[in-house]
Specification:
alpha+beta; four-stranded antiparallel beta sheet; globular
């Protein structure tokens, strides 16, 4: 049989290569299955041996079981979306907010609705509950409001003493209550303000600190031009954590709002939530001797741990010794330069 030169042999060559690749993949898959079966069999034999020997096996990783208690509807708009939920300190009630602008308060764990009210004319961005069950809400209508049950207590204005910032130039993005480390009676409220519109030259974002009882402003500082997307306050009220839409994470000292930690674009995409780890023995076993440990989660489905190392403190006697040496050296130097002075 005559094959036209350059046609049939070329087709057969490619067909042969394709068949070889297919056989190679099949052999690799069979080998992987064999290895997996051998490992599974080995683990089972090891567990069986341990049980026969009378030894107790323990799982080193703890398991979390989620059980559905109740299902309630928390947003009644056409395009319903719940945007925030917070428990009170006693975990006896929780409050929810969504795109319809309403706050709904529920008993927990029965999930019986206590009351609801329209807090904002636009979406509710964030909310928090104080120890005495006051609710602070922030919305896309440029307002930050304080409520007692469903009654308005006051509205906050962070830029009263900043005439360069015009009305509706910024909106509130987040709010959190926090303790005061050395004063059990005191309470602080922290809010974040972000630009309402994006400009060619990015504007600064701001973080404000308020008295959590009188709701009077205490301090406002800029926190960079990356738009803030999440905020958290440490358990003792020592640190404030911020996450941005570009994936960056920063930690501030609550007292002065001074930045002590910053990682640019650690996630590379929107940070959706932050949480400080409690300062307990189990945490210190994992993180070591650190001042703060902050977890961040983002749209990239990753959870990252951020550590603020402990500051090195000199003993008092060392400081006093250094001061004494400085004084002696100063006297000796003056006597050398001006013999008749002392």
């Amino acid at each position: 049989m005559f094959w036209p030169w350059g046609k049939m042999p070329l087709v057969m060559y490619f067909a042969s290569k394709k068949k070889k690749r297919k056989l190679r993949r099949e052999r690799t898959a069979k080998k992987d299955d064999t290895v997996k079966k051998a490992e599974t069999k080995k683990r089972r034999q090891a567990n069986k041996t341990a049980c026969n020997a009378g030894g107790d096996t323990q799982k080193e990783t703890s398991e979390i079981t989620v059980e559905a208690l109740h299902v309630v509807r928390t947003d009644l708009s056409t395009d319903a979306l719940q945007k925030c939920v917070r428990f009170n300190q006693a975990h006896s009630i929780l409050a929810t907010g969504g795109v319809d602008g309403y706050i709904r308060v529920w008993e927990f764990p029965s999930m019986k609705k206590c009351f609801d009210f329209q807090a904002h004319e636009a979406e509710v961005e964030d909310l928090d509950i104080s120890p005495d069950n006051k609710i602070v809400t922030v919305g896309r209508d440029f307002k930050c409001c304080v409520w007692k049950n469903d009654q308005l207590v006051t509205s906050l204005c962070w830029n009263e003493n900043m005439p360069q910032i015009t009305e509706k130039m910024y909106r509130y993005q987040a709010c959190r209550f926090g303790k005061v480390e050395d004063n059990k009676e005191a309470l602080r409220l922290y809010t974040v303000q972000i630009p309402h519109k994006r400009e060619r030259k990015p504007l600064q974002c701001y973080i404000s600190k308020w008295d959590g009882n009188t709701f009077l402003p205490l301090l406002t500082r800029d926190c960079g031009n990356e738009v803030i997307s999440a905020m958290s306050v440490s358990e003792l009220g020592t640190f404030v954590g911020l996450g941005t839409v570009t994936g960056s994470v920063a930690i501030y000292i609550a007292f002065s709002l001074q930045q002590v930690y910053y990682v640019k674009e650690t996630h590379g995409i929107v940070v959706t939530d932050l949480a400080f780890l409690p300062d307990v023995r189990q945490t210190r076993e994992v993180t070591g001797e650190t001042e703060a440990a902050l977890l961040s989660v983002a749209v990239d489905s990753r959870c990252k741990l951020h550590l603020v190392p402990s500051r090195q403190m000199f003993p008092v006697w060392v400081v006093l010794l250094l001061c004494g040496l400085i004084i002696v050296m100063t006297i000796l130097l003056l006597q050398h330069l001006f013999p008749g002075l002392l």
